[in-house]
Structures are given as structure tokens and as C-alpha cells.
Amino acid sequence: MVISSVVHHHSVWGHWTQLRWLMNFHRRTMVQWSTAPAQWTLKQKEPVLMPWGASPQSRRALHPASPSFQEVMLTSERYNVQRLPFSHVSNDDVAFFECLMPGRVITNPEELKPFNVDWLKSVQGCSKLLLKPQTAAEVSQVLRYCHERNLAVNPQGGNTGLVGGSVPVFDEIILSTVLMSQIISFDKVSGILVCQAGCILENLNQYLEEKGFIMPLDLGAKGSCHIGGNVATNAGGLRLLRYGSLRGTVLGLEVVLADGSVLDCLASLRKDNTGYDLKQLFIGSEGTLGVITAVSILCPQKPKAVNLAFLGCQSFTQVLKTFTTCRAMLGEILSAYEFMDDKCMELVKRHLKLSNPVTGSPFYVLIETSGSNSTHDEEKLNNFLEKVMISGLVTDGTVATDEKKIKMLWSLRERITEALTHDGYVYKYDISLPVGKLYDLVTDTRARLGQCAKNVVGYGHLGSGRVLEESLRLSSSGDYCFSLFSVSLPHMFCIKEMRGKQEQPIACL
């Protein structure tokens, strides 16, 4: 059987791309790449021109959120929580900190504003003091003093979290790691990086790329998030499918405990049985057990060949079957598998003016391969694409190998969160469910909420096995506010209606 040759001219990209598919049971012809193999397009139906109107993004990062529709409500008022009996910051306390770190103590309300509000602008604290230590010793002195004075402290990294955990609830002292951004060492033989907790993820990746390595973690917020915060929240990210979780790649930590004690577990050995593995207590602890001040992490070598496929599927069942086929055929070169529904793409197009090169599908998947041999990787990817196209699992798609075009495709996935912030309040959750049940939660929530929610969209790291990121975008007008509370299966998911300070369950999923 012959699938027609496809030739497209992308006026924005300024070159022709070509794909030639000749497939039957006895003969296969490999994809013929043009002289500028930045992207090719595959399609079951008649070929159509798909212009790309989006301007290239210089880097993948969380972009500034749109202005909120109204003043952000204080967390304490929104959730009706009471302040614990901690001391209040006095002038003597400020004087002590000024003596400890001159010029790095912030009390100006205007300067404090961005540190008191989360990225989604959904919660707000009222801290009156921000500290910017540069060393673990300074963090130790700060925490020892606060411990003796019974002062509450809120550790904060890049403040890119989407669940409000990085900002104070009341008037806690904000302890920012923004100035703890030194790279301590890097071993080119073992690939082990040791750095302070305030290093920005993208900066670390750029540093490593110059040496032929990369960070084992990749996030949409890479341009502003801190590695210490990544470890404290046990961030999964886009590379989890290939390199695993931070519990496996973090080799050691330096942590300052609440009383100022410094726990030095900054080992740089892949195998270390000399005692308890204490670092695991702090990975994912979100700053509740101590402040991470330095990290030792194992970094993989930079792939020499990267391909990115953006494909359209007609159902979530096809998304799952494509994933199964993908894992079986791509194996060791598969580095990411993301999915998103058409509602996500509508929002990205409407609010961010990004153009989707693959339209008309209810679901989309983004597949990344990375390896050391481009010919080998392209052959495996082509065989995979051939199979999913013939079987009907995929009806449309586009593939990029050029770095600039890869970033454009990634922006469609990574900037969904930003697009969600343009219409009102966002309730966004990472929810763990069996893979086959992932999208049922989206459809059930849409049915339960009806017109009360502007949109309910599903997207996320399907490749990590059990994660669905779901966002409920609700109207900012009126008295009604909905929130989704989740617990692990087999328990129920309850949607609760909140009017003022009264909260009653209205539905269970």
C-alpha cells in the first residue's frame, strides 16, 4: 500500500520540508529528508499547508502571569485558618538580621509583594520581612535565631510553584535562596554536579551543556525555578520517563534544620552504604523538615540526536495505545511522552497566539526521543510512525529535529499553564491515577460542574505512568467557588461548593 508523498512549504520557516512514505508488506523506503531537516509532516488524508504563525521562544520557562482580575485574597481569609502562637517580628529582630547580612534584608512592602503571592495569583501571605542569605552558615544562624525567638520561617526558591506552598500563610519570615546560586564543583568523569540550592535550573543546564552533559530534570519553569525547590518538592518534570525521579538522581544534600543544625549529607558517590540514607527524608518534604542549601546530583550526558513528534489522536484510548506502542518500539531512546486535549490547544492559541501545526484532533501527544546516533534514532522513530499511521492510532502529525522548531513545539505543551491564567482563577492539580482511568476524571468533572466552570482541561506527563495534571478554570465573578479535593484510589474525589466560609460537598467522583 502506498501513502501519498507530502511536500509542504512553510513560509514562516523559509524552507521546504519533504516526507516520502512508500510502505507495503514487501518493501519500505526510509524517510527522505530535505537539505534542512528541521521538520516534516505526516497525514493520512489530503495534504494541507499548515503555516506556523508563532514567534519562536528563546527558552522554555514560565512566562509572567497575566494581571489578576481582582486583589488576591489572603490565604488566611480564603481558607479560614488560624495563626499559631509564633512571635511577631520586632525592630530588634530586623536589626539582628541587618547585622548578619547587610543589604540583604528586605522590609519594603512594595519589594515584598511578589514574594508574598504565588505564581497563579491564587493565595497571598503578609510577610513583612525577606532575608537573602548567601551561605549555609548564614541560613544556620537565621534559623537558630528564629528557633530561639519562636519566629516562623517560610523557605522560598523561585516561587514558581502552582499550589501555593512557596508563599507564607501569615507573616512568616521569607527565607529566599535567590542569592545561593554558586556551582561548587562538577566531575566530568562521573557527571556529578554539586551546587547551591538557589541555582536556576536553566542556568545549570546551560553550564552542563557546554561540558557535554544535561540536568536529569526539565520543567516548564526552568528559567526561574531553583534546584533546591525542585528537590524539596520532588519535581518530576518532562524527563522523568528517561532519567527517573530525583530520588534516584540526587546523591546528596546539605540541609539546615529548624534549630540551625547543619546536616551534611552532600555525598558524591552513586553507592554509599555508610549509614542511613537521610537525604530521602528531605526530598519531597517541601521545607517542613529543613532548608536545603546544597545539592549533589548525577547528570547524564547530553544526547547527540533529539527528535520531537507532535501527533493527533481521535480518542484517549488511542493515546494510551500509542503510548504502549511507543514504549515497545522506541525503547531506550524514548525520553518524553506528553498528552493534552484540544481544549488546551484552543486556550494556547487564543491567549498566547501560538499556532498548532496539527489541528482537528480531540487529543494530542508529544513524543521526544534522544540518543547518540541520529540515523539509528530516525529509523526507529520512522518505523514507529509508520505503524501508528497504518493502524489508525495517529491521524495527523509533525516532526522536528531542529532545536528552534523543537522549542516551538514544546511551547505548545509547556505554556498551557500560562494560557489558563488569562480567564480567571485556576485550580490546578497533579493527580495520580491508573493510566487507563486518567481522562475519566476530566470528563466526569466536566459533567459535574457543567456551566459553573469555564473549562476543564486535561494534560500532563502520561509517560511517568500515573500522573494527570488537571486544571479547573472557573469564573471570577459571582459568589461560587469550587475546589477539587483528591485522595488516592480507591477513595472518592469530592467536589465541594464554597459560599463565603461555608463548605458543603455537592458531588463525588
Molecular structure report:
- The strands form six sheets. Strands 5-18-15-17-16-20-21-19 form an eight-stranded antiparallel β-sheet, sandwiched between helices.
- It has 15 helices and 24 strands.
- Mean pLDDT is about 80; it is low at about 1-70 and about 465-509.
- It has four domains: about 10-175, 2-Layer Sandwich (Uridine Diphospho-n-acetylenolpyruvylglucosamine Reductase, domain 2); about 185-300, Uridine Diphospho-n-acetylenolpyruvylglucosamine Reductase, domain 3, CATH 3.30.465; about 305-415, Alpha-Beta Plaits; about 425-509.
- A hairpin with a 6-residue loop joins β20 (about 455-460) and β21 (about 465-475).
- With about 500 residues, it is α+β, with helices and mostly antiparallel strands.
- Its cofactor is FAD.
- It comes from Apteryx mantelli (North Island brown kiwi).
- Its EC number is 1.1.99.39.
- InterPro entries: FAD-bd_oxidored_4_C (IPR004113), FAD-bd_PCMH (IPR016166), FAD-bd_PCMH-like_sf (IPR036318), FAD-bd_PCMH_sub1 (IPR016167), FAD-bd_PCMH_sub2 (IPR016169), FAD-linked_Oxase-like_C (IPR016164), FAD-oxidored/transferase_4 (IPR051264), Oxid_FAD_bind_N (IPR006094).
